[in-house]
Every structure is written in structure tokens, then in C-alpha cells.
């Protein structure tokens, strides 16, 4: 706008200048020289010239400036591209990939990290770089995301030509064609191997710490377990000796009663060992499914029973589950939950003993907690707001003084006597809660007791979601839409032929094996391939029961139908391993097997 | 033959010890913790008490201390038994148990022979 006004003023002065010159011309022609007018004219010429040049220069300068501005943008479109491309090539790894995963273009950086040559890379499938670190589901999720036109971001572990692993933080952007369909993918990647290394090392250290602490709490439990075990051993040895003496006196009735006592005690020992093993379980199953409230409180009861004699026997432990809504749960590794509960119960016991409290009482509560006014987490310091599932352990022990409360989550800090605690228990609890996205609250009054509350994020439980750990990937819906895959094992070829023909008619996809070992090799190779296993009982190399036990270790929920002719060995379903195992007596009616499978998958109309 | 009170929270142990002692013709009473033990002592006099240490409600140590305070039953010989080490070693070791008047200590698991030997020596 200003430029336009300036231009107009400039034009005005140019006209003025022209008029003055014309005036001078007229004076000269008239030959009537009037000095005064000439003077004024010259003055006007000078003034007009000055103004005009000033405005001309001024407007020119402005024009230049604006010109520069537009030039800058225009010019930098290209320059930007070049510098961005340089920056990109220096900083990122970049590929363009076809729908099928074949590499169409790769930048130098990518080529360098992959270890392949440019010629090798082009046309190569991205999957060649797979390291085996990620699960099939990981790639499945990745592909379904990008094929649906969404951007995928995440960390991928790849393997270069030499076989070395390298980590990339990748963003995969789908490219759409004219019709809006996904036609290619652009992959932008950053190399994060070093970062990942540090992260993995940290995780490993944390795991070692957790494990060391777990061993420590097992150590704490040993005296209690030893006490129970000694009682059990005494019963076993004692009743065994009594039994012998009764039989020697031909008092069979009392002898048998004694032997029954021996069996009962041995069973108690087995249960005790089972509980101990649950605690020691090393191969922690990663939390995939939420744990329901009833199960949480059962875990607490189980652990406290195991601790019963470790925790002084006169301390009363009460449990209350106010969270009856079974659609809510917590997402945490079961063995970590075990470890936390054990640590908190041991602490409560020690606090009661320290407080020399005569009527020791520990109460465990589970309820839904709402935080309308935010509170600060004692472990991470962040604000707690909203709904949480609260699992609290209260004791009426010695309590913790205010100056010590802030330190209780520090590793190696302990309020206990030397030799009684390593100061790792609550530190581990805090670590686990942090990983689970939860918080911790502490209330304590010196001399009166302590309450430690674990606040877990609330997880909605899907009705179809199995509560126990399951590796079933197929939902019912999936199964309804396709042929069920049967794995049939029998050492008699004739029977196999019979199964194959009859089940094929019933629209099953049948794979037959004449040896349990062959079937096991196949199942192990791809655990999720088969939907149902039908096995004979008596076979060379291994029985159907051995095979079922093996399969259940990798597919805990797969239905296994065992067909037996040896009625004396396998009498009922109760003799089968725990899981979805069913027993069928020979001669086998394929219709019955079919009905069992249909019922299992709810396929009957 | 003596009247003996056996106190233990483990049913099987009570059953076993009763059978052991009955075989030697002793008359046996049982109680499942210290509190029940004191109650039964008020109703019937006994010649010997065999008690476990780690028990709910009232443990063995509390039982022994309460017995010592009572002039009527304070002189009954006591045999203490335990399967756990924690209490016995830290708060109630062998020496102090004996100074408190406990005649014998039995560590679980023990045999019928060990029990009879201890009973004999405690009653002597």
C-alpha cells in the first residue's frame, strides 16, 4: 500500500518538474526575463528533483526489500530441498518400499548400515534384515497398521549383512496413489543402537537386582518353610514307623490309618513346594492379560499361607476384597505381584515384631480408589489423579518416622537392624510399580503402624480375555471363518487313514503323524498352527499323555483328545494333565470326537 | 503312667504324639494353641506339658511364662519342641529355656525313642 502511495507522489513530482521546465521554455520564448520568476522556477526544479529522487530511491528500496522477501522463499525452495536432503542423508536412513516389502530406493546411510551394496539392496525385501528379535505379532501389527494407511512408529532390531544387530527408530509412512489406495511406503529411520544398548543394559541390571532381592526374600522365608517342613517330615516319619509297628501286630486297620496320614502329609509337602516354586519361578510370563480382583486376593492368601510360619504365627492376617467388579483388573506380571506382596508382608511382620506389639494385625485390602484432589506418589513424586486399583497392606507395628518415610524407597535404605534387611525390598516394589505405570502411597504413625498402598492403573477386562496365561491367538470369530486344523497322531496307519477320510468329510484340515516325536517336532516348529490335537495313548517312543504334557507347556489351552484302549491306565479325565484334555475310549466314534471339538469352540448352532 | 498335655497347632503332630504317648500308656490331653492349653490346665491337673513354640494366639514362650507365674501349675515340668530355628535361637535359646524351667528341648523331626527318653527324664 505504502509503495503505491509513494509511486503516486513520485509521479506528481515528475509532472511538476515537467511543468516547470515548460514554464522556463515559455519565459525564454517570450524573451521577457523576469529574474524573480526564473529564480522561483529554478528553486522549484531543484525541489521537485530532490523530492522525486528521494521518493524514487525510497520506493525503489522498498521494492527491493519486497523483492528480496519473495526471492528468499522461492530460492530456498530449491536450496531447502538440497540442504534438507543433505541433512536427511547425513542424519537419517531412508528407504522407499513396495507394497510387498521390496526396497525401491535406499539412501547411502541405509546402504552403509545394512552392509549390502546398492545393487544388492535395490529389489531386496526388507525382511532380509529381520534379526529374529521381534515376534511374528510385532511384524503383523506393523504391516496391518501401514497397510491400513496409518503411520507406524517404533523401534526395530535389524541384522546387517555381516550378521551384526543394529537398532532403528523407524517411522513408516504409507504413500497413496490417485485413488487413495496405499501403493508404497516411505521409511525414515534413525540409528539408535548405542542408546538401545544402554537401555538393555539398564533393564538387565534392574532384572538382576529384582532377582537378587527375590532370593533375599526367599531367604527370609526359609525359616518359616523349614518349620512347616519339619512338622511335615515328623508326621511322615512318625506315622510310617507307627504303621509298621501296627502291621507287625497285625492291626491292619490302624496300620492303614497311619499310612493314610503319611500320604496326607506327603501331599502337604508337595503343596508347600508348589507354592515355593511359584515364587521362585524364573521364567516370568510377561503381563499380557489383566489379573482379576478375585485372583489378586487369592494370590495374597496363597502367599500369606506360605509365609504363615515365617510371619510369626500369632500375627493375624485379614483380607478384604471390596473390588467385586470382575470387569476391572490390573496388568502386571504374576511373579512380580508375588514379589511385591511378599516384601510388603515381610516388612509388616518385621514392623510388628519391632514394635513388640502383642496383638499383631496385618490387613490386606483391595478396592477402587478415586483421587479427586491429586496426591503425590511417594516413590516417583508425580501427581496421582483419577481412578486406581488400590492394594494396601496395613500393620499395627512400630511405624516409620517422617524423616525416614522419604528414604524408604531408596535402594539399601533400611529401618531394620543390621542383618535383618538389605533395604532392597521397597526399592524393588517401587521399580515394579513404576514399570507398571502405578504409584505408591505411604501412611505411617510412629508407634502405631504403617499402611503401604500400591495403586495400579485400572484395566478393563474384556469378557473373552482369558484370565490365565494363554497363547491362543485365534479368537472364536477367526475360527468360525476357517477350517479347523487337526493334528492326528496314531501309530496304526489304518486308523490314521480312517481319521483323515472321516474328518476331511467333516470339513477339517487334517495332518497325520504316525509317531508322537514327529508330531512334537511339527508343533514345536509352529506352536500356533494346529487348533486341535487328537492322539492315541499307547505308542512307541512316548505315550499320548507324555505328548500332551509336552504340548501343554507351549500351548496351555489347546484342546487335546486322547484315545485309549488301555482302560486300566487312564480311567477318567481326572487322570489327564490339567488343561483342555479329553479322554476317549476305543473303539473311537469320530462323531463323538467331532462333537467334542464343536462344543469346545462353541461351533454348534 | 503320667497325665500329659500336648500343645501344638499342627493337628497331625498332635495325633502322632498322642499315639506315641498312648503306646507307653500315658494319658494324653491335647490343645491347639497356648490359650487352649491354659484353659485345659485350669480344668485338669497334669504331670507334664509338651509344647510347641511357634503357634497362633498364644505361643509356647508366652505359655511357659504364664505357667511360671501361676503357683498352682508353675512346677509342672515342661518339654519344649520346635521345628523352626528363628524363635528358639534369637529370643528363647536353649540356655534361657532351661533357666525358665523347661526340662527338655526337642527339635522336630524327632523319633518316638527321643520323645520317650525326654518324657522319662522330665518326669524323673
Total number of helical segments of chain B?
Answer: 6
Major sheet: arrangement of strands of chain A: 2-1-5-4-3
Which regions of chain A have little confidence, pLDDT < 50, spanning 5+ residues? 68-75, 464-477
Between the first and last Cα atoms of chain A, what is the distance in angstroms? 80 Å
Largest sheet of chain B: 5 strands, parallel
CATH architecture of the largest domain in chain A: 2-Layer Sandwich
Structural class of chain A: alpha/beta
**Kindly state the mean pLDDT of chain B as a whole number?**
84
Task: Give average pLDDT of chain A, whole number.
Answer: 79
The side-by-side strand order for the widest beta sheet of chain B comes to 2-1-3-4-5
- The helix/strand class of chain B is alpha/beta
What is the fourth-level CATH superfamily of chain B? Response regulator
Question: What is the rounded Rg of chain B?
Answer: 13 Å
Chain-wise SSE layout:
The complex is a heterodimer of chains A (605) and B (124).
Chain A: H1 2-30, H2 35-91, E1 93-98, E2 103-106, H3 108-114, H4 118-121, H5 136-147, E3 152-159, E4 165-176, E5 182-191, H6 193-248, H7 252-280, H8 293-307, E6 316-321, E7 328-329, H9 334-354, E8 361-376, E9 383-395, H10 402-405, H11 425-435, E10 439-445, E11 449-457, E12 459-460, H12 476-480, E13 485-489, H13 493-505, E14 509-513, H14 516-525, E15 532-536, H15 544-554, E16 560-564, E17 581-585, H16 590-600
Parallel strand pairs in A: 6-8, 13-14, 13-15, 15-16, 16-17
Antiparallel strand pairs in A: 1-2, 1-5, 3-4, 4-5, 7-12, 8-9, 9-11, 10-11
Helix pairs in contact in A: 1-2, 6-7, 8-9, 9-11, 14-15
Chain B: E1 3-7, H1 11-23, E2 27-31, H2 34-43, E3 48-52, H3 60-69, E4 78-82, H4 86-90, H5 94-99, E5 102-107, H6 112-123
Parallel strand pairs in B: 1-2, 1-3, 3-4, 4-5
Helix pairs in contact in B: 2-3
Amino acid at each position: 500500500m505504502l509503495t503505491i502511495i509513494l509511486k503516486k507522489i513520485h509521479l506528481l513530482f515528475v509532472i511538476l518538474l515537467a511543468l516547470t521546465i515548460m514554464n522556463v521554455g515559455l519565459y525564454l520564448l517570450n524573451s521577457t526575463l523576469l529574474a524573480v520568476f526564473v529564480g522561483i522556477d529554478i528553486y522549484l526544479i531543484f525541489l521537485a528533483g530532490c523530492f522525486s529522487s528521494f521518493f524514487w530511491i525510497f520506493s525503489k528500496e522498498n521494492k527491493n526489500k519486497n523483492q528480496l522477501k519473495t526471492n528468499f522463499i522461492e530460492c530456498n525452495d530449491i536450496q531447502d530441498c538440497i540442504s534438507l536432503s543433505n541433512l536427511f542423508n547425513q542424519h537419517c536412513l531412508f528407504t522407499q518400499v513396495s507394497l510387498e516389502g521390496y526396497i525401491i530406493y535406499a539412501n547411502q546411510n541405509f546402504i552403509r548400515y545394512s552392509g549390502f551394496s546398492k545393487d544388492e539392496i535395490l529389489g531386496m525385501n526388507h525382511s532380509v534384515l529381520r534379526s529374529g528379535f521381534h515376534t511374528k505379532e510385532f511384524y503383523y501389527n506393523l504391516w496391518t497398521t501401514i497397510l491400513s494407511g496409518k503411520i507406524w512408529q517404533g523401534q526395530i532390531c535389524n541384522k546387517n549383512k555381516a550378521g551384526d544387530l543394529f537398532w532403528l527408530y523407524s517411522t513408516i509412512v504409507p504413500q497413496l496413489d490417485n485413488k487413495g489406495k496405499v501403493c508404497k511406503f516411505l521409511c525414515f529411520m534413525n540409528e539408535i543402537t548405542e542408546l538401545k544398548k544402554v537401555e538393555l543394559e539398564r533393564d538387565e541390571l534392574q532384572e538382576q537386582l529384582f532377582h537378587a532381592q527375590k532370593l533375599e526374600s526367599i531367604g527370609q522365608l526359609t525359616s518359616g518353610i523349614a518349620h512347616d517342613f519339619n512338622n511335615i517330615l515328623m508326621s511322615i516319619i512318625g506315622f510310617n514307623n507307627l504303621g509298621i509297628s501296627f502291621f507287625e501286630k497285625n492291626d491292619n486297620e490302624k496300620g492303614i490309618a497311619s499310612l493314610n496320614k503319611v500320604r496326607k502329609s506327603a501331599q502337604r509337602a508337595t503343596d508347600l513346594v508348589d507354592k515355593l516354586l511359584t515364587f521362585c519361578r524364573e521364567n516370568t510370563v510377561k503381563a499380557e492379560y489383566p489379573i482379576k480382583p478375585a485372583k489378586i486376593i487369592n494370590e495374597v492368601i496363597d502367599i500369606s499361607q506360605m509365609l504363615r510360619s515365617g510371619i510369626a504365627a500369632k500375627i493375624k492376617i485379614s483380607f478384604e476384597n471390596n473390588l467385586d467388579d470382575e470387569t476391572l483388573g490390573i496388568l502386571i506380571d504374576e511373579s512380580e505381584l508375588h514379589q511385591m506382596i511378599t516384601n510388603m508382608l515381610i516388612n509388616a511382620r518385621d514392623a510388628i515384631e519391632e514394635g513388640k506389639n502383642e496383638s499383631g494385625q496385618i490387613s490386606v485390602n483391595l478396592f477402587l480408589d478415586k483421587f479427586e484432589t491429586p496426591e503425590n506418589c511417594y516413590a516417583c513424586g508425580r501427581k496421582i489423579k483419577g481412578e486406581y486399583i488400590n492394594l494396601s497392606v496395613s500393620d499395627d507395628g512400630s511405624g516409620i518416622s517422617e524423616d525416614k518415610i522419604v528414604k524408604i524407597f531408596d535402594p539399601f535404605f533400611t529401618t531394620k537392624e543390621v542383618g535383618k534387611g538389605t533395604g532392597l525390598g521397597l526399592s524393588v516394589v517401587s521399580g515394579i510399580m513404576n514399570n507398571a505405570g502405578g504409584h505408591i502411597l505411604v501412611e505411617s504413625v510412629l508407634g502405631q503402624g504403617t499402611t503401604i498402598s500400591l495403586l495400579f492403573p485400572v484395566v478393563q477386562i474384556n469378557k473373552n480375555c482369558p484370565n490365565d496365561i494363554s497363547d491362543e491367538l485365534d479368537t472364536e470369530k477367526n475360527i468360525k471363518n476357517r477350517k479347523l486344523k487337526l493334528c492326528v497322531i496314531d501309530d496304526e496307519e489304518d486308523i490314521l487313514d480312517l481319521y483323515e477320510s472321516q474328518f476331511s468329510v467333516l470339513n477339517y484340515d487334517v495332518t497325520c503323524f504316525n509317531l508322537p516325536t514327529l508330531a512334537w517336532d511339527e508343533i514345536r516348529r509352529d506352536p500356533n498352527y494346529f487348533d486341535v490335537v487328537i492322539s492315541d495313548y499307547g505308542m512307541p517312543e512316548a505315550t499320548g499323555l507324555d505328548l500332551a504334557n509336552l504340548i501343554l507347556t507351549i500351548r496351555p489351552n489347546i484342546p487335546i483328545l486322547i484315545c485309549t484302549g488301555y482302560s486300566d491306565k487312564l480311567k477318567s479325565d481326572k487322570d489327564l494333565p490339567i488343561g483342555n484334555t479329553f479322554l476317549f475310549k476305543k473303539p473311537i466314534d469320530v462323531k463323538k470326537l467331532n462333537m467334542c471339538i464343536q462344543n469346545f469352540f462353541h461351533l454348534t448352532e | 503312667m503320667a497325665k500329659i498335655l500336648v500343645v501344638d497347632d499342627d493337628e497331625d503332630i498332635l495325633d502322632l504324639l498322642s499315639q506315641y504317648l498312648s503306646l507307653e500308656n500315658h494319658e494324653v490331653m491335647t490343645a491347639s494353641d497356648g490359650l487352649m492349653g491354659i484353659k485345659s490346665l485350669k480344668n485338669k491337673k497334669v504331670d507334664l506339658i509338651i509344647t510347641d513354640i511357634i503357634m497362633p494366639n498364644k505361643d509356647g514362650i508366652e505359655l511357659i511364662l504364664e505357667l511360671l507365674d501361676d503357683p498352682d501349675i508353675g512346677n509342672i515340668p515342661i518339654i519344649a519342641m520346635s521345628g523352626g530355628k528363628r524363635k528358639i535361637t534369637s529370643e528363647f535359646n536353649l540356655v534361657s529355656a532351661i533357666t525358665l524351667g523347661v526340662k527338655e528341648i526337642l527339635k522336630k523331626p524327632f523319633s518316638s525313642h527321643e520323645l520317650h527318653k525326654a518324657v522319662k527324664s522330665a518326669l524323673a
